[in-house]
Amino acid sequence: MTTSAVTGKAAVITIGTAVAEANAFSVDRNTDAVEATSFDSAGNREYVPGLFGWSGSFTTLRLINKTGAQAAATFAVGAAAGTSNPTIAGAIIITNEPVALTVDGITSYGYTFTGTGACTAATA
């Protein structure tokens, strides 16, 4: 049986244009669980799906200087968007832009973001 596992070595992050020298990303998609317990719940808590949200982070070796701006973003797993590998896309606001460096290492730029509006996840 052929595996569908994908390595991250060819992943692509696009925020307007491709983000140069990106080397990691993480996207968290979540849904609130809204309590709907009533007297009819027989002593058990009950929940219904609530609002959907998403957020994440990525790291680059180059400053992209987009903190506070809203932009369309695509995170493609394993290859460029439009291939058979998964992509996650939507509008993001970059909320944090820390810089990390050491005397004996490479400077890296870490970014955190909050998704705004719909997030699509698909395999093209």
Strand content range: over 45%
Distance between the termini: 22 Å
Q: Which stretches are poorly predicted, pLDDT < 50 over at least 5 residues? A: none
N to C succession of SSEs: EEEEEEEE
* Count of individual helical segments: 0
Overall geometric form:
extended
Rg, rounded, reads: 18 Å
Largest beta-sheet characterization: 8 strands, antiparallel
Count of extended strands: 8
Q: How many domains, in number, for the residues?
A: 1
The percent of residues in helical segments reads: under 10%
Structural class by sheet pairing and helices: mainly beta
Query: What is the residue-averaged pLDDT?
Result: 85
What's this model, at a glance?
This protein is 0% helix and 56% strand.
Task: Walk me through the structure.
This protein has 124 residues and is an all-beta fold. Helix content is 0%, strand content 56%. It has no helices and eight strands. It has strands at residues 12-15, 17-18, 22-35, 47-60, 70-76, 86-96, 99-100, 108-123. It has one domain. The protein is extended. Strands 1, 2, 3, 4, 5, 6, 7 and 8 form an eight-stranded antiparallel beta sheet that branches. The mean pLDDT is 85.
